[in-house]
């Protein structure tokens, strides 16, 4: 283990959780992330190898799947994000790349994103982004825009969401989420 | 405006960035003899139709797909949306 | 009847709300508007008109009100030009009248009314013509003081405004009988419905009328329908919400007044929300607006629309006066007489312009068929009207209130927002929606010209059923209550001919005479008439005045109204505060902020920050005792040149490029060769736009055969990524290439200076040899540091010194910076900011955004030969255009001030000695300038015509804005180490 101490996306030494009425917003940093982009003509091989590694079928457009230690969501045509606990796999590329071989391009994304785990009714989104809540059902991953920031909205369950934005604007994203929570709570 | 993304369904145009005429896909061969003339035409000579226009939009606030959107410039009616990659392959673009 | 309050109404008499108008205390009840409460307190005079400062009272009972504009609240929350007719009364409401001095009852500017003969339409254009110098300095301030509306507080608005996004199957605009009927049909069918209404109480005219729906009063039926809709999960009721615009593809703008009816918004809550509603189908059920009839002095307080009188009496239980007369041209206006009489209000006369009009038989009321009102009298309010009978007899009638009805105009406004044109309907004597409606929109009820209650209920249901069918749902059978289905009887009457001024546009003070003048001066098309007279251009957009005015123009030109046509409406439907359009995007929330991984570290050290696009970057790191920023920057620069400096360069874009064809791809997007770049090496790349101009530059490292990491300038990270995706998806979809941004994934720190290697060797894990031999200039490697942390090391230099950039996962950037500071203490390690970074790169002659400004080429930068002609890369062909390769073209040069005490600024233009500072003599411009602590002189980079051939000559850098005129020597842009020995050391 390196003898350097990491900081959280919001720049603290510990993670922050805010509760506003029935809404909670928790800064989270426990996922290692890697992007998986199928190489030309190797989509099937990518799917097969990913299934072998994670036990998951990489989902179609807008999809999010989870099982065991893995989560996977669709990011772009023939490209996905894989997530697994950081504690188990600090160097996620070292874990994923051998399994995928030359079938896909793997890029570390762990620190590219700041993540907030949110407990809130789906109506919370209506002050934040222009997506139809009827389409943001559990098991979807939606890339959209909140306050000019590109984000991914993962809906895990009825009131369980994660919002991921680029790490450098974690503070602005957090502020936007809190403001919306105060407005609807 | 609402763009009906071929993979993701209807999305607000605020998520997209506009580029222009879809003929930008038809980039000439830079090593051909008449390349200067071909590039001049490619880059500067565009139709400006009052009616159906095929144009490139980029889903920057989404999945980063380039799309070819067929839009009536008079009414903004969008009659067709394709992945630009598919259109490019259909037009014979490859490696 | 002692006061003006009647029995009944939809007000809560169990509670009393005190409020103040112009400092006087009054009281009303929940359910009141400011207008109804003022009328109930006997206050008729509510404002002064825009131009003539005429005393004015309410004309209407809704959002179309042109007269009763007040300033609501006080101090920072003061909101001018609020219509008293829609301002919901709350406890402690404070309102002030506008456009009067010293008081509403005695307004000194009322003198304008006496000057009216000189203030006709076109007066401004004709009078204030010369001298031109007076336009802005003399005329405009005078006109603005004399004519106007309320004034802004000049203070920051303390309230928040929000925005939001809604999606539905059916948007129903307006909750009158048609809208409620439609919403019930669609809501019961399970469709996602939004029902929006500008009023705080849904029901529309049902709340204002006395007739029954089935066994119930209209207002009771409306309340019951609203209760049912509220019980449906798939229906969202949005009272206090005005749909302000119809945009492309079923997108609507709506403003919800969340807290305007409260003294101040609850903590954390917005005052208003701007909603962007995306809907599959829309039903416009916006009702209709009554129009007045113009006659001499028809603007006196007490004269109002007959339907508004009915609304005040039925909904708000307020009598419009003690002796009320009515002037109508249709049956609907007669309802007012019936309802007032039923409430015990004395109706003194009914003047009906229709010769055949039936007598409604109101006890005590004179019925005068075929008669006209030809004038009014009374100071600050109506006392008498003058009537001319069908037989030509003229006499006065005592009346303190006159209800006027000229018929109703369907509210077609939103049907026009996509260039739809209303069409004239002779039978209704009104414009109705045309066929070219916004996509997905249908119109029902009075907005479609269906004026009866039964018709509204029926058409609302039918239109909702059609929308459901379009959406693949079936509609339940209608359960419509019995309701009146009276046919329209109306005989058009637009104005009463005669002497005196007859008002059309009350808010902009446009009279029938002004229309005649427009006609006389040939401003006859409706668009010309509108602009010449300003009719319809006030905040009410002419809701009550447009049609009468164009009907008069039609009369004057001898055309029909259909031939004359109409102006159309644009968003917004009613005025919108700028605050809600801005929403949350105020102050530092205007845009997101991006922080570097070492931001908190830099902040703790007292760094001064600068905005670089969205990023905040450390600009310099002042030390105690340093009194000027340049003192700090000079120290930082010299530390890099002499020892080692650290700078966070995470903001540069990083794009991960992988795939079997990654090398070929990079080779095509850069103008110089990349195909043969060896693994473990970095190369500087020039990226061109297809038109041959420079787009961006940066270094790109090859980490593996099939893996490159490209860097971009901070500003171009997004555009370059977009460009690469375009090349990948649209130009060469057959190449095997995958792209993803990793800008935020890695914290990248420049370690620059002669001692940089020594410092890095102290953190790099054993086993990674970074000696000059093993890791030369332009090498790169994936290594580990600090006991196993993954890192990428690049030996690249922006400063011209021996330098590296080291990248670690972003969460470790802060700790790495601390570690490097700690390990380098004895080496003189110094953090430096963007200011020193700029000085270092100017001294080295490296280009950045100042030089890559979209108008410059590789040749201008002296890198023309880098553009390969051995391959097809983006921009290469057109970069060879003749015009971009002129011998006397621009070249990047260095400039050094001859006098070290002089100043040199970016943006200065270059001139020959002795040449006049005029554009014709321009030789180029200074792109970047700084004080060079190394050379101890002001230096600069500049583009100069034929610059490469002029080394050693002297020119002048002239900045007319700051009065600088500096003699400079033309030198190489590489002020430091032109041979590059330092960076290879």
UniProtKB/TrEMBL annotation, chain A:
Entry superkingdom: Bacteria
SUPFAM superfamilies to which the protein is assigned, alphabetical: Folate-binding domain
UniProt xrefs under InterPro entries: TrmE/GcvT-like (IPR027266)
Protein name, entry field: Sarcosine oxidase subunit gamma
Native organism: Rhabdonatronobacter sediminivivens
From TrEMBL, chain B:
Gene Ontology annotations of biological process type: tetrahydrofolate metabolic process
One example GO MF annotation: sarcosine oxidase activity
The species this protein was found in: Rhabdonatronobacter sediminivivens
Coiled coil segments of this chain: none
Protein name (database record): Sarcosine oxidase subunit delta
Automatic annotation (TrEMBL), chain C:
Superkingdom of origin: Bacteria
Organism phylogeny: Bacteria, Pseudomonadati, Pseudomonadota, Alphaproteobacteria, Rhodobacterales
Chain ranges of the Aminomethyltransferase C-terminal domain: 904-977
PANTHER family: AMINOMETHYLTRANSFERASE (PTHR43757), AMINOMETHYLTRANSFERASE, MITOCHONDRIAL (PTHR43757:SF2)
Family classification: Belongs to the GcvT family.
Organism: Rhabdonatronobacter sediminivivens
Protein name from the UniProt record: Sarcosine oxidase subunit alpha family protein
Matches recorded under SUPFAM superfamilies: Aminomethyltransferase beta-barrel domain (SSF101790), FAD/NAD(P)-binding domain (SSF51905), Folate-binding domain (SSF103025)
Gene3D superfamilies (UniProt xref): 2Fe-2S iron-sulphur cluster binding domain, sarcosine oxidase, alpha subunit, N-terminal domain, BFD-like [2Fe-2S]-binding domain, FAD/NAD(P)-binding domain, Probable tRNA modification gtpase trme, domain 1
Domain SoxA A3 positions: 499-584
